[in-house]
Design brief:
The protein is built from 4 helices and 4 strands, in the order H-H-H-H-E-E-E-E. The chain has 161 residues and is α+β, with helices and mostly antiparallel strands. It has one domain. The protein has a 4-stranded antiparallel β-sheet, covered by helices on one side. Helix 2 packs antiparallel against helix 3. The protein is elongated. The termini are far apart. The model has no long low-confidence stretch (mean pLDDT 87).
Length: 161
Amino acid sequence: MSGSKRRIVRRSRKGQNGSTVVEFAIVAPLLFFVICMIIDLGLMFWVNLTMQYAVHEGARYAVTGQSNLDPNAASQQRYLAVIQDIEDASMGLYTLVNPAISVTVNGVPAAYGANMFGGPGDLIVLQLNCAWPLLTPLIKPFFTGGQYSFTVAATMRNEGY
């Protein structure tokens, strides 16, 4: 009797040899999709926080009235120095998100140029509109243009330089 039970157990195991492969083939695409989505969401949050840090550092630098970070040593400009500080603090993401910079001085939009960040005592708002390309093709339709668009900003008052 014990011999026939062994044969039955062996037969049932032999019949399941291909079922593991079929089950994996069914579950694997869903598993990989979820893993890619988690990676995409994690990257979106990381990029957002990194750019928020970069705009904060840029605003901190802007309120001091300095211009020493401008790569052009011959005629350093304050607004170029602030942009350079944002690039330095963004961990290389600045060029990838291609931000549109807008500055408000005392509630009035500032013109791009030498006096872009106002004078001593002015309240400035530095804002970056960014777009991050998504990796997972199945979630791209849920975002405009297949990109995660976000805005980061920092508000500070200029020092009395």
